[in-house]
Amino acid sequence: MKVNENRHDNFARLTALLSLAVAIAAIAVPYFQQSQIQKSQSYEELRVILNPNTNGPILLKGSNFGKMGRLIQMPWQLIISNNSLRTTSILETSLSTGSEPGSTYYSGISGGIVDANYDPVEMPLVLEAGVSKSLYIYVGALVPSHVYETLDKINEGNPILDREAMKELGANGIDIYGNRVEYKAFEAGNFIIKYLEPEKSPKFWLRLSTGQGNNFFATASKYGLRSEGTL
After folding, report:
1. Which of 11, 145, 165, 219 gives the lowest tally of CB atoms within 10 Å of its CB?
2. Whole-structure pTM over 0.90, yes or no?
3. Using CA atoms, how far apart are residues 22 and 140, in angstroms rounded to an integer?
């Protein structure tokens, strides 16, 4: 008789434990799911691409940095995608050059962000969740004086399109940084340029800072592959 009573007690205890476990799970699972949702909603994820292969107007700024060269500003395409589940606000941008972010900075290295009509884009830049924007950022480069003077003569100091600058400089056997090139012209204004020293093209780093205190980076060089990343 006692054996049956013990079995009944053990069964009752097991049933109670199972019921308690189910009750805890019923509370814990929704809480965990809600916590995960809140975490994903608060997480920022920006994809940033810096693309130098554009044909926008180059600005001749005139600033003279001595042996380092003279300042021009080139519009490079800037693609920003908000891949997070929340609205993101970009408060500021900064450009630098060198082997790593922040290596070298000089006055005029950033000419600001503009839209497709080359009108200035004001900060903060707000992106809703899932939204992408294609803009331009003027990248300031220091070029040799003879390159600057050649560009200045083409349009008498007015902005010159990137492809036009490429063609005129190529005809003189140089690129926009003064590096050697091979140039061959064809009918109807067509031409081919072979860059002999692409490794001398400086690398630029773009940093985007958000209202959440996160930094997103992209890097590119004039003749290198565009790239993206987060540091």
Report:
1. 11
2. no
3. 64
124 cis-preceded (ω within 30 degrees of 0): yes
User: How much of the chain exceeds pLDDT 70, in percent?
Assistant: 78
Nearest alpha-carbon partner for 73 in 86, 56, 51, 97: 56
- The CA distances from residue 75 to 6, 107, 161, 230, in Å, are 84, 17, 10, 22
Phi, psi for 128 (deg, rounded to 5): -70, 160
**Tens digit of pLDDT for each residue in 137-158?**
999 999 999 999 999 988 776 7
Asked if pLDDT for residue 14 goes beyond 90, the answer is: no
CA distances from 6 to 16, 17, 18, 20 (A): 15, 16, 18, 21
**Rounded (10°) angle between helices 162-171 and 145-154:** 120
Instruction: Give the whole-angstrom CA distance, residue 94 versus residue 61.
Output: 19
- How far apart, in Å, are the Cα atoms of 215 and each of 38, 61, 123, 231? 21, 29, 15, 7
The distance in angstroms from the start CA to the end CA of the chain is: 72
Residue with tokens 């992106």: 127
- pLDDT tens sequence across 44-96: 999 999 999 999 999 999 899 999 999 999 999 999 999 999 999 999 999 99
Count H helices and E strands in the chain, helices first.
3, 12
List the one residue out of 49, 39, 38, 40 whose CA is nearest residue 216.
49
- Most confident option among 8-22, 31-45, 159-173: 159-173
